[in-house]
Amino acid sequence: MLTRWYQCNCKPGWMGKHCDFRGPELTCGSNNIIITFDRRAIAEEGMLTQNPSMVGFISRDSSHCIAMFEHSHNMSRYFLMIPKPIETSCGSTTQVTSQTYQIQNSVTWEVMDETIKSTVVLFDFTCIYEKNGTSSSEFSSNGILSIESYKRQTEVITSGGTFDINLSLFRDALF
After folding, report:
1. What residues form the membrane-spanning segments (predicted)?
2. Given CB 3.0 to 4.6 Å as the disulfide criterion, which of 37, 84, 103, 140 pairs with 124?
């Protein structure tokens, strides 16, 4: 059970019970999506782990879908990256509108013992790629970390191309 006796309203870009560390960073790129966040974000919730394989995306269908743990002299953080194809890797889902492509996923904490597998959604995120060549990012506050502030980084890509599409129509699935 996660219990907080009080809650601070942090300045934008900061989080934690005492607003003493930076919120997660999300980089929406054309070749990958990168998320980094301070280890204290989950340690404050009692999920302290030195095992980075407990932190990952909603689907861990490859070794690329789990976190790496980075430790330097002044910071310990998790680093996660969704590789190409970003729209389907690691459980990502895509929504296409007339103006945007939205790639959504979640960062989770997962622990397994002999009989039970437990998964907790830490936070949801969305990378929004506009069809005119720009991108933006969003975090949802639905996870247990209640992330409301974060650092945004976007990679602006302007490109185009020519595509040939062949469609074949069949009467039923037997063809």
Report:
1. none
2. 140
